Amino acid sequence: MPITPTKKIWMDGELVDWDKATTHVLTHTLHYGTGAFEGIRAYKTPNGVAVFRLREHIQRLFNSCKILMMDVPFTPDELFEATKDVVRVNELHDGCYIRPLVYLGYGEMGINTLPCPVNVAIAAWPWGAYLGDHGVENGVRMKISSWNRHAPNAMPTASKTVGGYVNSSLAKVEALKAGYDEAIMLGPDARISECTGENLFIVRDGQLISPPPSEAGALKGITQSSIVKIAHDLGFDVSFEAMRRDDLYLADEAFLTGTAAEVVPISSVDDRLVGDGAPGPITKAVQSTYFKAVRGEIPEYEDWLTRV
Fold it and tell me: Which of 17, 229, 272, 287 is the most exposed place for a label (fewest CB within 10 A)?
């Protein structure tokens, strides 16, 4: 989706004009892909704009950097406050997408990352539905990708690593060129892992099932964990189980979750309808509750929101 420029981007402790938020062409991460990022959303609520599960996102960013042996030159509290500053200074009262990035900067070249300077940037801009309003309402068409998700001992799958998303991009472009909306990726054992940037749930006999992230090579999702909590609160059982592709074909319902995508029904997989091809009742119940929660309409989930 196109980016709509805003006024300022936070870079290493300073708010910089959008057009001046640049880095050198020899920035290490640009060449070798070692870096970590997060995707975060803020929503308009009755009590002002609020960032959804900001603490959890900042902590996951630091976890990614620890795995990559990158020493972040700021504390989690500093990046927590910086994120709020970016939303506030850009007057994003109707909500936005937020992108923190920790990257290796200019000054060293070669695959040894240890001498490289570590830089941090946080940007925010207005962003709509990642998979489109039609997809959110009616569901999306998926295909199993020919590209496998990384093996956990080949790429650290618990880290949201910059270079790791080449894998996702290949799968995404393949799906789009074949006429689908999104791709589903298998792990090295040919079991379901995740989508190109989202976790996945199926509904079978009234129960929600998702692949176990650590075993499937998927990133443990913050939206995924939110949906587990919501589903339990609605009275649905949730389990994490290894799944084959035919489990998707035979599911009663299916949907994907992610910060950018939010909660999106899956209408078909490999040209096989999921259920009757329309969003199912459990999917709609979970999706509706999620959208109310992130917009501050359900007091029970207020602790997920950070007011700006």
Answer: 17
Q: Confirm if 254 and 140 have CB atoms less than 8 A apart.
A: no
Number of domains in the chain: 2
Same domain, yes or no: 285 and 148: yes
Q: Tell me how far apart the alpha carbons of residues 203 and 22 are, in angstroms, rounded to a whole number.
A: 45
Residue 300 lies in a domain: no
Residues 197 and 121 in one domain: no
CATH number at residue 274: 3.20.10.10
pTM above 0.85, yes or no: yes
**pLDDT, tens digit, for every residue of 44-68?**
999 999 999 999 999 999 999 999 9
Residue 274: inside a domain: yes
Q: Which residues contact 260 (CB under 8 A, 6 or more apart)?
A: 39, 41, 97, 127, 130, 197, 198
Looking at per-residue pLDDT, the higher value among 179 and 213 belongs to 179
Q: Specify if 1 maps to a domain.
A: no
Average pLDDT, integer, range 112-117: 96
Phi, psi of 307 (to 5 degrees): -70, 140
| Alpha-carbon separation of residue 190 from 144, 150, 245 (angstroms) | 11, 11, 8
Closest to 216 (Cα-Cα) out of 181, 191, 250: 191
Question: Containing domain of residue 203, as a range?
Answer: 133-294
Catalogue the active-site residues.
160
Domain boundary among 125, 151, 179: 125
Q: Rounded distance, CA 245 to CA 138, Å?
A: 22
Q: How far is it, in rounded angstroms, from Cα 305 to Cα 188?
A: 36
Cα separation, 181 vs 266, in Å, equals 10
pLDDT digits (tens, 9 = 90+) for 155-193: 999 999 999 999 999 999 999 999 999 999 999 899 999
